[in-house]
Amino acid sequence: GRLDHFVYSASLGATLREQSGAFRHEAERLNQVLETMVEGVMVIGPDSRVVLENRALRGFLGVPTPLRGRSPIESVRHPEFEAAVTRVLTGRQPEAIEIALAHPGVSRPEAGAALQAFNVNLTPLAWEGRTGAVAVFHDITRVRELEALRRDFVANASHELRTPLAAIGGYVETLREVEMSEEDR
After folding, report:
1. Helix, strand, or coil here: 96?
2. What is the pLDDT of residue 153?
3. Does the pTM of the predicted model rise above 0.70?
4. What does the pLDDT look like over 83-108, one tens digit per residue?
5. How would you classify residue 129: left for phi > 0, otherwise alpha for psi between -120 and 50, otherwise beta?
6. Where are the alpha helices (DSSP H) in the chain?
7. Chain centroid to CA 99
8. pLDDT per residue over 26-76, tens digit each?
9. d(CA 89, CA 83)
10. Could you tell me if 71 and 53 are in contact, meaning their C-beta atoms sit under 8 angstroms apart?
11. Dihedral angle at the C-alpha atoms of 108, 113, 118, 122, nearest 10 degrees?
12. Which residues pair with 96 in a beta bridge?
């Protein structure tokens, strides 16, 4: 009896250590994936507090220390982001928003100062019978800059073409309205 109990306890202990090691290895691998992602990731618990975030998000926000325990508005100083988090936590529906934030290190962006643009996808997350959320931040700053360049180019090109076209149009009108010989025309 005692020997069987000892063998069973040793076997159970070995199994638990093995499972614990497997769980730890899996958690380390998931953390490695999270930390090497280009997108910023934030996990928000049902209490509207940050539970987890990755290095990319801390870089986007210019925050060197973890955000764990902070509220969404303390972490990402944008009212639309906080409102979207609240809607996802209460409505349990995914949502996508676009927000603009000052570059890290710029405490008060002046008029015309460059902003970072983010597309943020928020998804509800089942959390022990309650709802949390995952927010994924895609940096679309370069896309917005290229769109602005394209708009400026089209506006400049159309402006530059308008002047010579107006002059040519004026000449054509003159040729149509003024009486002159076919040779002169």
Report:
1. strand
2. 78
3. no
4. 999 999 998 899 999 999 887 655 55
5. left
6. 2-36, 55-61, 72-75, 79-91, 141-177
7. 8
8. 667 776 777 878 899 999 999 999 999 999 999 898 888 889 999 999 889
9. 10
10. no
11. 30
12. 121
